[in-house]
TrEMBL record:
Involved in phosphonate degradation. SUPFAM superfamilies: PLP-dependent transferases. It comes from Devosia enhydra. Signal peptide: none annotated. One of its GO terms (biological process) is organic phosphonate catabolic process. This is 2-aminoethylphosphonate--pyruvate transaminase. The keyword Transferase applies. Keywords: Aminotransferase, Pyridoxal phosphate, Pyruvate, Transferase. Belongs to the class-V pyridoxal-phosphate-dependent aminotransferase family. PhnW subfamily.
Amino acid sequence: MEIERRHEHYLLTPGPLTVPMATKQQMLVDRSPNSPEFAQLTRDICNYVLEIANGTETHVCVPLQGSATYGNEAAVQTLVPRDGKLLVIQNGYYGVRLVEMARGLRLNHVVLELPLLPLPSREDIEGVLAEHPDITHIMLCHAETGTGVLNPIEMVAEVAREHGKRLIVDAVASFGGFAIDVAGLDLEAVVISPNKCLESVPGVALVIVNKKSLEASAGRSGSVTLDLHAQCKMMSETGAWRWTPPTHVIGALGEAVRRHRAEGGIPARGARYRSNWRILVDGLRQRGFTTLLPDDVAVPIIVTVHDPKHPNYQFSRFYEALQKQGITIFPGRLTSAGTFRIGVMGDLQASDMYVILSAIDTALAEIGVTV
C-alpha cells in the first residue's frame, strides 16, 4: 500500500524544521513593532513559555533578536558577574560552542571536558567544584543534538543547588518537547530556540531568567545588544523591544505556541516525537544500520547513525539521492567514525517516518549500497 506523502519537502535537520503551513502563513502578515497588538502577541508568547516551564511566579521570559546562540551569550553576559567563574560541561559539539563563547568573552571559566559516554556524573561535577571552589555558575547543553545525547539536568541542578552554584541550561533543542521545571530545579536561566520542539522558524531567542538574578544584573553585560536586563526593563515599561524585532518571526511563533497548546503541550509533543523516533530507529536497524547511541541515553528527537561500511557509500552521494526525493538530512558532529543524523522534530507524524524509510531504500539502491 502506498503511503501518503504529507510534505513536498522534508527538512530532517536538528533545526530549522519542517514547519506547519499555518505557522509559515503568519509570516505573510506585516505587523507594526510598535502596535499594541504586537506587544500583546509578544506577551502571550512569553506567558505561555513561562507557563509550561513552571516559571510564572519565579522567572521572566526575555525575547531577544537573533539565533539561540545569541541567547546563550546574552545569558552569560548578563548573569555571570565580572568576578564570577563559569564551569562549562562539554560532552558534544554544542558544549564546544559554549566553551568558545566563554573564551571569546574572556570570562573566567573552567571546562569539564567529557567523552560522549558515559553521561556526566555527580562525581565528575563535584570533583571540579572541589578543585575550583570559586565557581559561581555552571552551564551545559540539555539535548546535545550534535551527537544525540540527553544530558541529566535534574542531577546537575541538584549538585548546583547543594553547592550554592547557579545553573544556566542551553535547552535550545529540548524545550517544548521535554519537561523542564525552572522553579523546581531553581534554574538561573534556560535558553530556548523556537525552531526546534516549538516547531516555529529561526530568528529569535527566548531566555527564561530567574527574576531576582535578573534584577541584580543591571549594568553587568559588556554588550549593548545582548543585555537581558536592559531588554526586559524596556519591554516591561513600554511593551516595546529595544531594537527592531523580527516581526514576521514573532507572528509565526505566536501561531506555533497556539498549536503547541492545542496539541496538548509538552506531554503530547514529546510523545509524538518519541513515536516518530521509535519507528525510524527500528526501521533503520531492520535495514542493517547501526545507531551511535544506546536507546536509554539517546534524545528522541534525532537519530545519529553510523555510515554504512560499503565501498560504494559516500555521504555526499547518499545525501544527493535523498535530496532528489525532497528529503534533507544532516552529517554527524564530533564522532570518531562517520555518521549522519535524521531529525524527527517538526510537522511530522508516524506516517512520515515510513515515507522517509522508503526514500532511504530508494537512495541506497540508487548509489549501489547494501547495509
